[in-house]
Specification:
The chain is of the alpha/beta class. The chain has 14 helices and 10 strands. The protein folds into 2 domains: 176 residues, Bordetella uptake gene, domain 1 (D-Maltodextrin-Binding Protein, domain 2, 3-Layer(aba) Sandwich); 98 residues, Periplasmic binding protein-like II (D-Maltodextrin-Binding Protein, domain 2). 43% of the residues lie in helices and 17% in strands. Strands 1, 2, 3, 4, 7, 8, 9 and 10 form an 8-stranded mixed sheet that branches. It has a two-stranded parallel ribbon with strand order 5-6.
Amino acid sequence: MTLSRRTALAALVAPAAANAESVWPVRPLRVVVPFAPGGATDLIARLVAEHLARPLGQQVAVENRAGAFGILGADAVAKAAPDGYTLLAGSPGPMAVNPFVYRNLPYSPERDLVGVSMVAVIPYVMVVPASLGVSTVQELLALARSRPGSINFATSGMASRLTVEMFRALAGGVEMEMVQYRGGAPARTDLLAGRVQLVIEQAPSFLEDFRAGTLRPLAVGGARRFALLPDVPTLQEAGIAGYEAAAWLGYAAPAGMPVEIRRRLASEIDRLLLLPEVRDRLAAWGAEPVGGPPRRWTACSRPNAPGGAKWCVWLGSNGSSVSGARSRAARRRGRAKRKARHAPSGRPRRPPWTRSPARRRGCP
């Protein structure tokens, strides 16, 4: 009996691939953070990378690739080789929100990325400069309504943007202006300088400022109060009925990474999440360790995750209605622009066959 060339080649390659997995890792790993340094995602990703290096026996480097609401970093990991040496510090924006917002996303979280480990759940907090002179959510709303457009809110990603948009919608449509940043740290800098007046972001970025009195927490986004800020009410307690938002951080990898490598990474992350120094650091930031097998990440991070919420643990059951309302508004604006573009202008229109093909297709 003779073997075909393809069968013989597969027989030769399979042991080599299995051997490569058994000796993994043989070189440093790279963790891509899709936001600027200094934010909560960056801080927790660096903490995990620091303690992951020793059991793996290799350096774990963190690379910040910020831009486009986390799309650049997530896309870079999605297109990387699935060899176990490139990971993504994933969060709700790149993994669960962007697919609902961008029609032509260059990557698919469900097709191009696979879960490794859900690391931690992180509370959102509503923050204003102490110099703004407001100490409650209702005072902030009164100020915004008395001076429409005077409140600028910072956003470091699509998830943080939607936390403010949900607040605006549930508060009755208060008018505010958005300022986009590449991460939570640059947003914090301008918040301290007074160039923006509001942010709803992950709590770890601002705890030192709360202690210093330079920034003021008005409310937390979760269903219950934040242990490190026990006197700060939830947004529901502050009068914003139905508001609930929390973020998470997990590690993802390019699709096709061997299951054995994913399980090894998940088990090592579970072990380091039990270390007292890691738990103390996470507790100081207000983050709750999670851990678990790769399937736990998949269950909570997918855009169509099962359960009562569209985006699982981070936005509550109101997320889809808020994003849907914004989509309908965007469609209305688009229709109005097209109608104005094609309205009679008082001069004869050229026949369709004299216009360029691009113009005939409706391109601008």
